[in-house]
Amino acid sequence: MSTEDNSHEKPINLTVLWVRTEPNLRAFVAAAIWDVHHAEDVLQEIAIVVSTNFASYDPARPFLPWCLGISRLKVMEYLRSQSRNRVVLSDATLLSLESAVQSLSEEYLAARRTTLQKCVRQLKGRQKEVVELRYLKEQSIEDIASKFATSCSSIAVTLHRARAALRECVSRTLDAEGGAS
Amino acid sequence: MKSLGELFDRYLDGDLAPDELAELEAWIDQDSDHARQFIEWSATHLDTRTALQGNALHDAVMHVVERQTEVSAVESSVGGRDSRRFIYQHLVTAVCVTLLISASYFFVQKWRPEEPTPEATVQLASSGGDAKIIQRIDCVLEQDRWSIQSSEFASGESIQIAEGVVVIEFARGARVTLEGPADLEILSNNSGFLHEGKLTAVVPDSAIGFEVLTPDAHVIDHGTEFAVRVDSTGVSETHVFQGEVELTGTLAKSNTDMRPNSEILTAAQAGRFEGDETPTIKTISASPKEFIRLPQQADASSSDRSNITPLPQPSDLVMWFEASQGVQLDAESCVVSWQNLAVSDASISSGAWQINAAQRPFYRRDQTANRPAIQFQGTRKEFLATTPIRTSDEITVLVVCEFDMTPGQGVGQVLMLKGTGKLAIQQERDNSPAAQVYSWKLKELRRLQTATPTIANSPLVIGCRYSLEENLFQLFVNGELIAEDSANGPIAKEASHMIGCNNHRTKNFFSGSIAEIAVYNSLLGREKLDTAISVLMQKYAVRH
Predict the structure, then answer these.
(1) Which one of A20, A178, B2, B374 is most buried, counting C-beta atoms within 10 A?
(2) How many CB atoms lie within 10 A of CB B200?
(3) Please, is B229 exposed, middle or buried when counting C-beta atoms within 10 Å of its C-beta (0-12, 13-18, 19+)?
(4) ipTM of this model?
(5) B126 near A CB under 8 A
(6) pTM flag (> 0.80)
(7) How far apart are CA A14 and CA A9, in angstroms?
(8) Distances in Å between the alpha carbon of B381 and those of B293, B412, B509?
(9) Using CB atoms, which residue from A23, A69, A141 is nearest to B190?
(10) Residue B237: band (very low, low, confident or very high) from pLDDT cuts 50, 70, 90
């Protein structure tokens, strides 16, 4: 096969491999970086590094572990930059998470994401508003409390209940659909 | 104790105190199911924003579609040209809706093809071992003392070496040369715990982040080659040969005020922790010669490619050692390994090795015609053992060497090819060169020897042709046919051959120096043999 043919196939293979792997990488980054904005940024950086280094990837080996190695480095870079200002997960716990994320199937993680989109629609009232302000508008607990003229602890409780409700909804729906991993 | 859900939510808001984070980490690390649950909850947290964005986008687009439909329904009543405009606008809107919904995710399942191509097959779960032994070098594994074990290892299993070297390949591509005595526990497909011993790691891009844990440290590779040794008390040292590593002390977790002592080590740097109360990193110079590395990673300064010999028919070479090429030295300038130039496949190392430091021959840079040579003193029982190399019943051997004329010394075997019959090139008691073949099958020894002793401190080019098919056994010295006889049975075999002693490593230790060895798995024709000998004699200034 000519070099030209190989170069045409490589981008297609990367896309296919990335689509299959991204749910697990996303889950790992989400577990390590609680700030959703930064988590998305790090995930973008990981995608760039994976794409840039894809020529060095050995297709005989599993793609996910290769990507996870890159992901862990990028996560650790970010955590090191944050460690002076806030507490971050230890290297040992990151290892535990990296090992655990490989045991989750991408179909299961993708199904959770799809199910979540339906569950989010089921949020009502104050929970819906607080979640939208926190996640879409990226407002702090203090700002949200100020908007609703209530205490931070009250908003924290509302947020906690909304998150718990979403987690419960996703699990219940997947169990009902037989979509557990 | 706060509920786990509360702890987790406060983690999501960056609101945990150090001791609370430690509590959460302890829960995660306690059980893999906990780790999975933490990941699922975290993924839900991250995906909530995306789900909200997707729903908002979907709602906005559908509103546009509904509006467009209403407008277009009114326009269609006008008919004709306006109908075509309605259809066009509706199509454009439908395309935009599809694109916008798709763009609401970073990578969307809808783009996944129906049938995966063979190249796209992704193995998410580990189906085999996390590490496997790909090469053994004169090695005794503890687990093999009493039974034959698998060479694949899963997480939690240990590789324990009594002596020798093994080359281990982790599933993500990192290659580790482990030198016994050693105990390496496999932690994952890209990490291990070195309880005791020495290892060298070469980490390709696919294994970035390869980690080695020791009793007092945690080493994370940032690429590309480093070594770690742990002594019997658990004290470790990390040496970096290429790239950089992150070295961290294994202190208490983040529920203390003290952050782990961590430092980046770059090439030529080494580090170890000192101090009992608060261990700190002491940085020293790296010592590559204290570690055994695979020959292709040997110190480039000891190889001189311009000295390689233009031997005829090089494709038939099965063994080729040249003292200016691929020699790995230890700190005492003794030979650890000698690369077999006849093997071009770099995936597996082929060479001659001496794992035991006390029995390593010396390396002399200006020995034979001012060229490098490997020097054997005999009294220290030095020898080198090759990795398994297959020889045939049609063979041509060329050796360039010098004999030490030590009075009273016994037979010294320069090269011993261990086959079904054993062929040896050796120095006799009277310091004359000889070749002999011993046949186990025929219980017969045939020896070819010159009646003329060699000149002291003068290099020799010894040649030997052996052919079972042509029933031929010949000895040449400096281009002259000295003696010949008929063949003495088959000698072909894949085995570890010896340089400098007998096949059992117990006697006939050679005293002298060896500059070059070339073994063909074919019978070189007389003309090509003469060419090869002539080339070697010219190279090493050998007189007729």
Answers:
(1) B374
(2) 24
(3) buried
(4) 0.88
(5) yes
(6) no
(7) 9
(8) 23, 11, 6
(9) A69
(10) very high
